[in-house]
Amino acid sequence: MTGTPIRHLAIIPDGNRRWARARGMSAQEGHIAGIGAIDGAIREAFAQGVEMVTFWWGSPANLTQRAPEEVRGIVDALGDWLDGPAQRLLRDTDARFGAFGRIDELCPELRPKLDRALGAASAGPRQVTLLMGYDGRDELREAARTFARGASQSLEEGLWTAGLPDVDLLLRSGGSAHLSAGFMLWHIAEARLAFVDEPWPAVTPAVVRRELEAAGAQTRRYGR
Fold first, then answer.
1. Closest CA to 81 of 119, 115, 39
2. Cβ neighbours of residue 165 under 8 Å, at least 6 residues apart?
3. Do 192 and 215 form a contact (C-beta atoms < 8 A)?
4. Around Cβ 6, how many Cβ atoms within 10 Å?
5. How many CB atoms lie within 10 A of CB 191?
6. How many angstroms separate the CA atoms of 197 and 172, rounded?
């Protein structure tokens, strides 16, 4: 029996702070290293035939409950990526770009940078999706309210991430085998889960390839 292709890869890039602490570095330096690892992971995923990569860069709790200097580091690292590497990535891979979450509420300074990244995106077959200020439970509550007042035809239609396909593989780094903040609850119902020990800045393209190959070799029956 042949395996099931991985078309949509979702990433929870955990472990930036632990990676930094182990090297005597600041949390901000860990987040900078972490956002740097995003490029290699996405490029490798696309090279392996993945069509969509969704990555999470912070929940509302991350942006409101951590020390102000660390929150600034999280936001600044993402902003620097959006202003340069993200645009090159989108052009190089002929990829579309989307962003969801409470971005305008929690980090409005990112809006101009997001708009510039959107302007660099193409209409190609691949897509990069950013989740920032995102909590899957918030998303479901808002979708339920939208549906209840008749503003959508279904619960799924009211999701912030409506239109994204189901996740085939969820990859979480950092050695902790759990989900967080209701991450993409609607979309991961049938996903394969890969929990790797490496903290996110240490996740190389080779690690991504290893997990994609392992998951792709599995045959899914979806209840049949």
1. 39
2. 7, 8, 52, 187
3. yes
4. 25
5. 19
6. 9
Tokens of 183: 């991450």
Surface-to-core class of residue 176, CB atoms within 10 Å of its CB (0-12 exposed, 13-18 middle, 19+ buried): middle
Token pair of 82 as six digits: 């959006």
Q: How many CA atoms lie within 13 A of 78 on its CB side?
A: 25
193 sits in which H/E element? strand 192-195
Give CA 204 to chain center in angstroms. 16
Q: Which residue, chain included where needed, has tokens 């993200």?
A: 86
Domains of the chain: 8-216 (3.40.1180.10)
Q: Is 146 buried (19+), middle (13-18) or exposed (0-12) by CB count in 10 A? A: middle
CB-based burial of residue 135 (10 Å sphere; 0-12 exposed, 13-18 middle, 19+ buried)?
buried
pTM of the model: 0.93
Q: By three-state DSSP, how is residue 212 classified? A: helix
Digit-by-digit pLDDT tens for the chain (224 residues) are: 357 899 999 999 999 999 999 999 999 999 999 999 999 999 999 999 999 999 999 999 999 999 999 999 999 999 999 999 999 999 999 999 999 999 999 999 999 999 999 999 988 999 999 999 999 999 999 999 999 988 888 999 999 999 999 999 999 999 999 999 999 999 999 999 999 999 999 999 999 999 999 999 986 655 55
The DSSP bridge pattern shows strands 95-100 and 169-172 to be unpaired
DSSP letter (8 states) at residue 144: H
Q: How many CB atoms lie within 10 A of CB 20?
A: 22
